[in-house]
Amino acid sequence: MSDILGYLYGLVVFTGGAIGYLKAGSTASILAGAIFGFLAAYGAYLDNKILAFLTSWILLAVMGPRFYRGRKFMPAGLVTLLR
């Protein structure tokens, strides 16, 4: 079950980066979404709980303060909530 959730989490992170790129033209969004989405899915594939844990905590550390400062649910609030 954790594999499926890890794959879904990785897909959501990647999709968020792609949407950020399409809406704002943000290269940083697509790169971060691809890297962290891949790491989350790869952690699920390897059943490596440490990799999955670190990936989600890094995203929380980056997106949590952004959500707190901006009070906008998308995308920072969603990533913070999914963590």
TrEMBL record:
One biological process term from GO is:
regulation of heme biosynthetic process
* Origin: domain of life: Eukaryota
Give the protein's recorded name. Answer: Transmembrane protein 14C
Could you tell me which Gene3D superfamilies the record lists for this protein? Transmembrane protein 14-like (1.10.10.1740)
Q: Which family does it belong to?
A: Belongs to the TMEM14 family.
GO cellular component terms, semicolon-separated? mitochondrial membrane
The secretion signal range is none
List all membrane-crossing ranges.
6-22, 29-45, 51-68
Compartments, as annotated in UniProt: Membrane
The record lists the organism as: Mucor saturninus
Task: Alphabetically list the UniProt keywords.
Answer: Membrane, Transmembrane, Transmembrane helix
